[in-house]
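ARCHIVE RECORD
Type: protein–small molecule complex
Small molecule: 2-acetamido-2-deoxy-beta-D-glucopyranose
Source of inputs: curated submission
Record status: active
Notes field left blank by submitter.
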Amino acid sequence: MKMLNNNMTSSYLRFRVFFQIILVIYLGSLLSCNSEKSAIGDPGMKRDNLRVAIEAWNQCNEVYEEAPNMGSPRHADCFDLQKSNHRSNVLCFWFSDSKTNVVAAKLVHLVNELDNKLSINDAKSLGQENLNVDTYAAWKELFLGYKCQVQDEPNPWNFWMIMLKSGNMDSTAAICPKNGKPSQPFPQDSRFPCFGKGCMNMPRIYHDYSTLHSHKEHPKMSKLKGGFHGTWDLDADMSKAKTQNDTSFFSVTWHKTLGKGSWKFHHVLKTSTKYPWLMLYLRSDATTGVSGGYHYETRGMSKMVPKSPNFKVRFTLDVRKGGGPNSQFYLMDIGSCWKNNGQPCDGDVTTDVTRYSEMIINPDTESWCNPKGNLKLCPPYHTFANGTRVHRTDEARFPYDAYHLHCAPGNAKYLEEPFTICDEYSNPQAQEILQILPHPVWGEYGYPTKKGEGWISDPRTWELDVGRLSESLYFYQDPGSKPVERHWPSIDLGTEIYVSSNQLAEWVVSDFDIIVTDE
Ligand SMILES: *[C@@H]1O[C@H](CO)[C@@H](O)[C@H](O)[C@H]1NC(C)=O
Ligand SMILES: *[C@@H]1O[C@H](CO)[C@@H](O)[C@H](O)[C@H]1NC(C)=O
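STRUCTURE (tokenized, with ligand):
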């Protein structure tokens, strides 16, 4: 009897253990089904060991000529904190650690000033004499990416990318190709600002390397801080550029409490008479391949390239100054590339087409797409969230106010009349742009539904269903071609101040993440 009892007990125990294992596996699978997967290297901008880089582009997303003594316009600030239990030198700071009480942290930079100063003049000594000033910048981005690289699954990643661009174009110099083909000089016209020879210069970029400070109010806490700033006005007094009238200026400063919360990226952008069309974005770019608008191999933060419809983008945005009526502030800007026949881009600028879509939240931006006279600025159709598609001539149902404009790729052969071709010069290749405005039709995707939402003194944390929205948007493809899978190698936000001088924009971005949802 005893024996039997024991046997029964042990088989009961075996059953319990077996049952518990099954339960754990079952709960585990439930959790993983619902768990969010981030597509980026630093989900929510929480990682103390920052990785950030900056790039500057001219009107056609190239360099053409470096700014004097500034090197190639690619710079990076990447560091790791080294903890140790002893005070080693003055660079050390003390911070509380719940386990060891006080620990010294030392900030170790991975990119030094020599790396950041690398210029086309160094190409020969680096064995890169075959590169020109444009391809050298692309090479430098890969080099900095290599120095900053973080091993991760499914892919290593590099850095956040701050992007600067000036829209000046010297049309008499024919520097930018037209839809990816060599262009002819033409007289300066109102579309393109230019004050004369050299108007497409790269900005001067200055770097405040990240440092660790003790917190002013809480001496036991430490703060991390760094930044880039500069101007396009090459003759400006940099110490006054921020406040001086008619002097272009940009700055991005990042700061964070050590071990806590998100990085805050504080942006400032100011235009001048000579540089009235400027852009400043914070981008999460793909870590390999070409990204939206950039026809060279790129480095970035997106260790997985998000694919429609399966991703969301989350971030906090605090707009403090709007940048004037022509500031096209992009709550969200997504960039991709595919050919009109549905093939993926391969770097052939004559057939690759950049595709952009942007949600503009400046309430001053009006809908230009309308059925009376400007149908050519409307996409051919709108698809509602429930899948119903309405043609732009259906005046009763088409949501005209949801669109700022649509423009078509300059190399598209079968466009529906009437249409407008996008700027043929402002990209290394042809481009297509679809700009949307706050409207109830986008509410389904978590986007603003009313003008003014998320604008000045209305800071918000957004969770945008960019994946599902971007699946539903109209983009051109040749009739009969297989609809492409839409991958988005560049996801960014920031402002494009369009041709207006002495405008000032200021905003703060934090908590950024791209979340991949299950297929
Ligand atoms: C700033 O400069 C512009 C261009 O020279 C000028 O029109 C404007 O009046 C100036 N503004 C101030 C406040 O001085
Ligand atoms: C889909 O939504 C649109 C706009 O709300 C509406 O007009 C249409 O009737 C809906 N279609 C279906 C099939 O529910």
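CURATOR ANNOTATION: Confidence is low (pLDDT under 50) at residues 1-9, 24-33, 87-92, 94-102.
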